[in-house]
Amino acid sequence: MAEQPPWTQPRLPFEPLRGVSDDELEAIHKASLRVLAETGIDFLDEIARRQLVDVGCQVDGDRVRFDPDLVMHLVSTAPAEFTMHAPSPARNLHMGGNVLTYTSVASPPFVTGLGRDRRDGNRDDYRNLIKLGQVLNAVHTVAGYPVEPMDLHPSVRHLYATHDMLTLSDKVPFVYSLSRQRNLDAIEMTRIARGADHDAMDVEPSLYSVINASTPLRYDTVMLHGIQEMSARNQCIVITPFTLAGAMAPVTVPGALVLQNAEALAGIAYTQVVRAGAPVIYGGFTSNVDMRSGAPAFGTPEYWKACLIGGQLARRYRVPYRSSNVNASNSVDAQSAYESVIALWGAVMGGVNLLLHGAGWLEGGLLTSYEKMVIDADLLNMVTAMLEPVVIDDAALAVEAIAEVGPAGHFFGTQHTQERYATEHFQPMVSSWTNFEAWDEGGRVEAHQRAEALARILVDAHQEPPMATDRRAALDEFVERRVAEGGVETDY
Question: Which of 21, 202, 292, 457 has its CA 20 to 30 A from that of 244?
Answer without folding.
Answer: 21
